């Protein structure tokens, strides 16, 4: 899926198994499993709507995201203040990199603002130094890292250096490449920004040295 199609940002929530309440709905609080996920949200109309309705009369919306392991049809999607219950989870055309969530919008008087996530933190960068004659692959450790986070180096009086090839290993670890060829020698700060715009900074944690 082209990144340009993923213009919306959603969260996925799961519900703990529990005793249904008096209305037959699951009891207990919803828990955010994935937050800040880029998505393509399509409110179905016309032929697509009729086709979806033939499969399940409750389906009103199609949400496509990059593959996330473990997503279940018992989960729900939050998009801004709107809630969508997942009816089915599939992969269109058997494309392994995409999940297609067929959903129905929940009609409720309550708002569904995405729960505020803790701000990320960076605890270390490894290695913490490199010469300025080539890009350097590094590993960031910390907490609260989200999919599609952005990483950069900053230094007063210098242009920011944006990392490339950022790969999220988990919410506590990611790898990236720092294009520091020609960068000014000295200490640089590492800044990570999640899709929800929350940031973490590890001040003066990476040192660029003059190449021999």
Describe the structure.
The chain contains one helix and 15 strands; from the N terminus they run E-E-H-E-E-E-E-E-E-E-E-E-E-E-E-E. The chain is mainly beta and 212 residues long. The longest helix has 10 residues, at 46-55. The chain is elongated, with a radius of gyration of 21 Å. Residues 109-115 have low confidence and may be disordered.
Write the layout of secondary structure elements.
Elements: E1 8-14, E2 31-43, H1 46-55, E3 61-66, E4 76-79, E5 82-90, E6 98-105, E7 121-126, E8 129-131, E9 136-143, E10 150-154, E11 161-162, E12 164-170, E13 173-178, E14 186-193, E15 199-209
Parallel strand pairs: 8-15
Antiparallel strand pairs: 1-2, 1-4, 2-3, 3-6, 4-5, 5-6, 7-9, 9-13, 10-11, 10-14, 12-13, 14-15
Please name the defining characteristics of this protein.
about 210 residues; Thrombin, subunit H; Immunoglobulin-like; 5-stranded mixed sheet; 1 helix; 15 strands; elongated
Tell me the β content: over 45%
Main beta-sheet strand count, sense and barrel state? 6 strands, antiparallel, barrel
Give the H and E element order: EEHEEEEEEEEEEEEE
Say how many strands there are: 15
Measured on Cα atoms, how large is the radius of gyration? 21 Å
**What does the average pLDDT come to?**
83
State the helix count: 1
List the strand order in the largest sheet. Answer: 1-2-3-6-5-4
Q: What separation lies between the terminal Cα atoms?
A: 43 Å
Identify the CATH class of the largest domain. Answer: Mainly Beta
Low-confidence spans: pLDDT under 50, at least 5 residues?
Answer: 109-115
For this structure, the CATH topology of the largest domain is Thrombin, subunit H
Name given to the CATH homologous superfamily of the largest domain: Bacteriophage SPP1 head-tail adaptor protein
Structural class: mainly beta
Q: From the 3D coordinates, which CATH architecture of the largest domain would you assign?
A: Beta Barrel
Overall helicity:
under 10%
Task: Write down the overall geometry.
Answer: elongated
Instruction: Tally the structural domains.
Output: 2
């Amino acid at each position: 899926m082209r990144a340009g199609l993923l213009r919306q940002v959603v969260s996925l929530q799961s519900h703990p198994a529990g005793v249904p309440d008096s209305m037959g709905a699951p009891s207990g609080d919803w828990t955010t499993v994935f937050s800040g996920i880029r998505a393509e949200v399509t409110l179905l109309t016309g032929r697509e709507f009729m086709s979806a309705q033939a499969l399940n009369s409750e389906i009103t919306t199609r949400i496509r995201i990059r593959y996330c392991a473990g997503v279940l049809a018992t989960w729900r999607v939050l998009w801004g203040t709107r809630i969508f219950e997942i009816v089915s989870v599939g992969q269109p055309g058997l494309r392994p990199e995409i999940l297609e969530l067929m959903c129905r919008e929940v009609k409720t008087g309550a708002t569904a603002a995405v729960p505020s996530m803790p701000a990320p933190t960076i605890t270390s960068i490894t290695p913490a130094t490199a010469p300025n004659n080539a890009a350097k692959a590094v590993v960031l450790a910390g907490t609260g890292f989200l999919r599609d986070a952005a990483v950069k180096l900053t230094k007063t009086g210098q242009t920011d250096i944006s990392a490339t090839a950022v790969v999220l290993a988990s919410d506590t670890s990611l790898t990236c490449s720092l294009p520091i060829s020609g960068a000014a020698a000295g200490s640089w700060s590492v800044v990570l920004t999640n899709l929800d715009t929350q940031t973490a900074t590890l001040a003066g944690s990476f040192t660029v040295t003059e190449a021999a």
